[in-house]
Amino acid sequence: QALKFKILIKNKKVGTIEEGMLRRHLDRHGETGEISDFENMSDEDETDEKAPLYPKSDSSKRKSDQKPSSPPRKKAKMKKIKIAIALSDLVIYTKSQKFVSFEHSLANQKCYENNSIGEVRAQKFVKISAKEFVSHTSRFITRIYPKGTRTNSSNYNPQEFWNVGCQMVALNFQTPGVPMELQNGKFLDNGRCGYILKPEFLRNRNSTFTPHNVGRYSKPISLSIRLISGHQLPPSNLSKTNKADPLVQVEIYGVPEDQAKKKSSVIKSNALSPRWNETFSFTIQVPELALIRFCVKDEISLVANEFLGQYTLPLLSLSKGYRNVPLLSKDGDNLEAASLFVHVWYY
Question: CATH says 97-217 is which class?
């Protein structure tokens, strides 16, 4: 509540918060301070990544004499960084602190210090240290960022990091696709204000929750979605008239046990008012973390579909009864008049 309508500045900081508070009413314009930092070192060891720097489509163009192994890492050197005192003093709740290990953070990290962890390292932690990861994010703000080899600005699936309580899951916003649709859908909750309260089991420091073993934190619900019809679905790029062959995919994103995908039949040559009358049933163990995505596609062939529109929202924001589901374009724009008509029930 105290942080409503405030902006949090995340940066490195000179000295302590207490020293900054004492300087608050002094004019420190133009003054700088020095902090120590490691040179040529990100928070993620890039040599751990097995991903090539080239897109797969270009792999045939690689020179045969090129060595596949990564160059040896340079030894990290300490260097001094200058930072404006005025900027440093604006950093209060979100001081950047290099991540060493969960044990190190537990013993040494202050509540106002936060870490950035690269996606490859974070994915390893999700697999082998999920309980410690959840414990860490219950104490400290944790940011995940895309690996450096994503030179085409592609994105990872943010859901696996939300599942362990990471607060700042950074994506390449310039790249549309499922990860950005999940991001936009997640923050439909709480009136799109930008802050969402994590479930209690991700805030409790004594929690034993992990995404792979939800245990006593499971509050399963049975969800039934009856897909009744579509209304003015967007035309296919391959069709001048509205003669697409639409199908609908209903997808659940959440903890691994809840991941599910169900597909409707194809309605031939009718995107204006297709009727399906099909029911999809799901059992969801951790509804607090689940998102539901409705995706409409045009069947071009038995092996290829063209995206027409989608809508993603938190499962617990889904209201029961007869509902109109609006559709959004790849860029997240509203597709006027296009919608699905469904009946939602869960218990």
Answer: alpha beta
